[in-house]
Amino acid sequence: MARDKKLVGALLRWYRRHHRDLPWRRTKDPYPIWVSEVMLQQTRVTTALPYYERFLKEFPDVHALAGAPEAKLLAVWSGLGYYRRARQMQQAAKVIVTEHGGVFPDSYDGLLALPGIGPYTAAAIASISFNRAHAVVDGNVIRVMSRFINESGEVSRTETKERLRRRMQTLGEAGASRRFGLFNQAVMELGATVCTLRNPGCMSCPLRDACQARRQGVQGLRPVKAIKERSVKLEMAVAVVRRGSHYLMRERPEDCDLMPGFWELPEVTGAALADDCFDALGIRRGEHLGNFRHGITFRSYRGSVYSSKIEGRAPACYRWVPEQRLEEMPLTTVARKALRIALDARNR
């Protein structure tokens, strides 16, 4: 107990001197903290920053988010990926407005009951905004605590994560019971900047003398991760069909597993694609404009973009979209990549 308290004290002193000055760390308001935590799931800080600022400009509070048209929400989110997060945020915002009078629940259980908020996000908001004593467990925390206790179990397993969470919880309770939000942020920051995946900066770490993996010389082998599923390589062809200042596009149906409600260009995928791959849509493949790479879970695509033409009417479900509307529409990541390549080709 006394040793844990001393270690946490050293960690908090390190954090005050070395933490990055990020906008969501300058407030206790649960709304911007919530936005930041959701955006930072599977997204780097440097990537998330401009989206965070734009999101708060468009939707400055929970009322604005709850009342926003979904198309506008998705357009503002467009480029961050994992669009289900944005939809779930809006669902939670509506619950906060209608059932809580626009005020965030100030308890872990109350936050956990909101749509789309899981244990990590609930713990982060509860501790940082309301100083509730709940340990967070994200990728950075898992890495720090795996090395700290020299955890040999696969971190994808529920029982392993629970061991790490319990140790994180006891550590925080011992040394930061009244500053739990600060403690959580300090461990996350340590993982992001010092206890990194490759080449951890052990000599700069305030926990180095108590780190069991470092003592054993196995910090590079922690955390233990499951073997990844081998990536499947596929081809993708995207047709950019223009008629005047309009593009041929379609809105992905609501029953799509990926990105429902987003707009896409005509595209086909497969192990190998022939010259006539667009024939079923009545589209004639034209000049090759460029290539791009795209990944979805275990699938890796090599994308090719073609300037194409269509004879007669647009195929079923497709429509002609004015170029000036593209910026305000939720576009798939593939559509954005293809349109950027087409625009570069036009400017050359």
Describe the structure.
This protein has 348 residues and is of the alpha+beta class. It is built from 13 helices and eight strands. Strands 1, 2, 3, 4, 5, 6, 7 and 8 form an eight-stranded mixed beta sheet that branches. β1 and β2 form a beta hairpin. α1 (2-18) packs across α11 (180-193) and α9 crosses α10. The chain is globular, with a radius of gyration of 24 Å.
- Number of helical segments with 4 or more residues: 13
Low-confidence stretches: none
Please describe the biggest sheet, giving its number of strands, its sense, and whether it closes into a barrel. 8 strands, mixed
Please tell me the overall pLDDT: 94
SSE order, as H and E? HHHHHHHHHHHHEEEEEEEEH
What is the number of beta strands?
A: 8
Query: How far apart are the termini?
Result: 67 Å
Which structural class do you get from the secondary structure elements?
alpha+beta
Rg over CA atoms, rounded to whole Å, is: 24 Å
Please estimate the helix content: 40-55%
**Tertiary shape:** globular
Our estimate of the beta-strand percent is 5-15%
Features:
single chain; alpha+beta; 43% helix; 348 residues; 13 helices
Topology:
Elements: H1 2-18, H2 30-39, H3 45-58, H4 62-66, H5 70-77, H6 84-100, H7 108-112, H8 119-130, H9 139-149, H10 158-175, H11 180-193, H12 212-216, E1 232-243, E2 246-251, E3 263-264, E4 267-270, E5 283-284, E6 288-296, E7 299-310, E8 318-322, H13 333-347
Parallel strand pairs: 1-7
Antiparallel strand pairs: 1-2, 1-4, 2-3, 2-8, 5-7, 6-7
Helix pairs in contact: 1-10, 1-11, 2-3, 2-8, 8-11, 9-10, 9-11
